[in-house]
Amino acid sequence: MANKTENASFEEIVAVNSSTLQIPGPIYAKIIKAALAEGDKDLPALGKAIEAVDIDSTQKISHRMKGTFGNLKLIAVASPAEAMNKIAKTWIAGTGSVTNDMGRVKELFGDVQREFEKLKQMAEDAK
Q1: pTM for the whole structure
Q2: Domain that includes residue 43, residue range
Q3: Total structural domains in the chain?
Q4: How far apart are the first and last CA of the chain?
Q5: Which of 1, 2, 18, 49 could covalently link to 57 via disulfide, CB atoms 3.0 to 4.6 Å apart?
Q6: 89, 93, 95, 98 alpha-carbon torsion, rounded to 10°
Q7: Do 20 and 4 meet the contact criterion of CB atoms below 8 Å apart?
Q8: Please, is 125 exposed, middle or buried when counting C-beta atoms within 10 Å of its C-beta (0-12, 13-18, 19+)?
Q9: Is position 62 within any domain?
Q10: pLDDT digit string (tens) for 68-110?
Q11: In this structure, is residue 3 part of a structural domain?
């Protein structure tokens, strides 16, 4: 997933992605803010699921974040969530190793968390 808005301001992200998605900018900005509000709930829950090695919750929450932020073209958040989701799916299928993969999942969680917080701060600064 390429991200043309990786180093862009919130206003630039809204302009580029709202155009791509054919959604008026102000509406797209509101959708992002709603996604961030949901993410404020999902992110701590995902961290707890990872720490508890709750495979089902890790997969479900990472899938939801991948879908939400991916559909909004917010790839910096969606991409590590997608990678985490793929690993969790291997755990569920019995083809992955929690022991071998946990370090990578925690690293991806850190990436999701960092990019989410960066996006959230940009949205707050744009008010």
Answers
A1: 0.91
A2: 10-125
A3: 1
A4: 28
A5: 49
A6: 60
A7: no
A8: exposed
A9: yes
A10: 999 999 999 999 999 999 999 999 999 999 999 999 999 999 9
A11: no
